[in-house]
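Just scan my protein:

——
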Amino acid sequence: MTTTATAPADRTATPADPGAAPVALRAVVDLDVAGPTISRHVYGHFAEHLGRCIYGGFWVGEDADVPHEGGIRTDVVEALRALDIPNLRWPGGCFADEYHWEDGIGPREERPRVVNTHWGDVVENNHFGTHEFMALCELLGAEPYVSSNVGSGSVQEMSEWVEYLTRGDDSPMARRRREHGRDEPWRVKFWGIGNEPWGCGGNLLAPQFASLARQFSTYARNHGGNELYRIVAGARDDDFDWTETLMKQVSTKLGDPAPSDLFQAVSFHYYTVTGTWSEKGSATDFTTDEYWTTMRQALKVREVLAGHAAVMDAWDPTKKVGLVLDEWGTWWDVEPGTNPGFLFQQNTLRDALVAGVHFDVFHEFADRLRMANIAQTVNVLQAMLLTDGEHLVRTPTYHVFEMNKGHQDATALDVRAVGERSRRDVGGTTIETVSASASVKDGRVLVSLTHLDPSAPTRVEIALRGAAVGTPTGRVLTGDLAAHNTAEAPDAVAPVALEGVSVVDGVLVVELPPASFATVELPLV
């Protein structure tokens, strides 16, 4: 049914029959009121030299039996291209602050072997280095996000890496790059200044790192037409003082103490952890109470984001400096029998719902949040893909990224709740049981809905105002909370058509099954 969506704020759909699911959310969306652009880069990814993310995940080597291009696994590339992957962060993580880039260039058989002290204490052969990473990004159609070594590296080392990658004349580093087979410079925009300097990146205090950030950012030069977007490593969780210390470096409020273009973004990390760091809980064996605790922790990202954004607004009211959440996701105990340092965990519907609510929050902060990177892309933590020999498994989280890709570079629309909505008390914290966001791009509206309650179906009613819409189509990801995909059952959790979707008198009505993530697309007419 095609209508002109002009319902008043409290307008709801025609009452359903008495057996219909209760309404968990009534909301209004003004289709003609544009919000900020949702950067495609909030759908970014992260690949660290950790476990089987690089070796056995992206990189199989040129003698591998599985299909590859120059040693890069092609089924992984194809699966990620289907997500419109916007960027890839590398080489870490904690590994970045012990990585010396010159170890990863030149003939592979001549590259030095080093010890990966952070992740499993295994020997790293450096066969995957700068050229291999840039080749991977080109295959993916993704922008590289390079994290430089501040913890154990030098300013000169970082500066020469930028030159090696991006300079096009006959400079010393450009000549060296050509000696290793690459004539033209690469385009590299995103440049990380350190990683977790409060922890594995040096155990520094905020003022110590702020001084280093100024120094390293100064020597991360723009060469030719390549302009760097410098992302300074920021806080853990809700350490807002760390963010303020960094923001003072680029503010004009104290009499212009530093150039305003010293760096372009500040990062922070937030993981959904429900237990202790030593006992985080199983990825697949959990109680309903543990599930709700997970959702409470996942939704806490809103208050953490809001806190960092408020600090940045105080020092940068024009929002010139971006906020970057370059590590996020669930963190469980490793799968039994696997190397504890490899961080391999299964990925269930629970993880997918965590991703769903995160993206709704990301869209809400689109005016400040410029990038987010899930940890990590293959075989590590909340991965998109799991590989095992010739097998490739798409996780439930992968499907959330795919279903949501229409939000990339779309215009955010405010989903404004009206009236009462369904809530639940979780350990003294009240959380909403349905999360929602919306955007418009290329004449199509995309609505995302995450229904957290695993015990019953529910109904969502959204009054659409300010434009006419066509027939909606929906997709849904649902199942048992612990359901997950394996090589034997690769589609145990996969999106299917959502039947209970309609537009009635300007109101979008969506019937959601228990514990589900859904997207609804509507053409503007």
Observations:
- The radius of gyration is 23 Å.
- The chain has two domains: 3-36+412-523, 40-409.
- The CA atoms of residues 196 and 317 lie 26 Å apart.
- Residues 1-18 have pLDDT under 50 and may be disordered.
